[in-house]
Amino acid sequence: MSDSHIYPARIERDEDGRYVVTFSDFGWGATDGARLEEVLAEAQDLLRELIAATIREGRDLPKPSKVRADQYPIVPPLPIALKAALYLAFKEQGVSQRQFARNLNIAEGEVRRMLNPDHGTKAAAIDSVLRSLGKLCSVSIQEAA
User: Fold this and answer.
1) Rg (CA), the chain
2) C-beta of residue 42 within 8 angstroms of C-beta of residue 104
3) Which pTM does this prediction carry?
4) Which CA distances in Å does 36 have to 9, 24, 95, 120, 139?
5) What pLDDT, on a 0 to 100 scale, did the predictor assign at position 59?
6) Strands ordered across the beta sheet of 19-22
7) ∠ CA 10-11-14 to the nearest 5 degrees?
């Protein structure tokens, strides 16, 4: 089973002609830009913050909807995508962070840092934990839209 963190974004023009982007899967948050290229970059930043806020608040991360023809697929920055994958694996375990750390034989502080979306964690460390949980991380390189 594959988990992707590519979320569909709706981009519309407001009354001033600016592009406004929203993510219906999250139900909150918006950003805007004067040009489409600008708002697509802003969309990635917004998606990072939406995922980070969801993790910080301990809420369930929404499963991405299928991208429709009138939407844009937005890929979060790699560090937050990895944090999201780890967070989902943690939630799947249904245990406290303390127990999660014990199960992984890692210090609780290290688990807290790894699950903190604002802490820089090396990709190799997250990959190692995910592998120990039977998960495989992969990177897909595609042509940009």
Assistant:
1) 17
2) no
3) 0.91
4) 12, 19, 43, 30, 26
5) 95
6) 30-33, 19-22, 7-13, 72-74
7) 130
Only one residue has tokens 């820089």, namely: 120
For 20-42, give one letter per residue: b (16+ CB within 10 A) or e.
Answer: bbbbeebeeeebbbeeeeebbeb
At residue 145, the pLDDT reads: 61
**Judging by beta carbons within 10 Å of its beta carbon (0-12, 13-18, 19+), is residue 86 exposed, middle or buried?**
buried
Residues 6+ apart with CB under 8 A from 28: 50
Bridge partners, residue 74, by sequence: 7
What amino acid occupies position 110?
Answer: E
Mean pLDDT per block of 10 residues along the chain (145 residues) reads 80 95 95 94 96 96 94 94 94 94 94 95 94 86 71
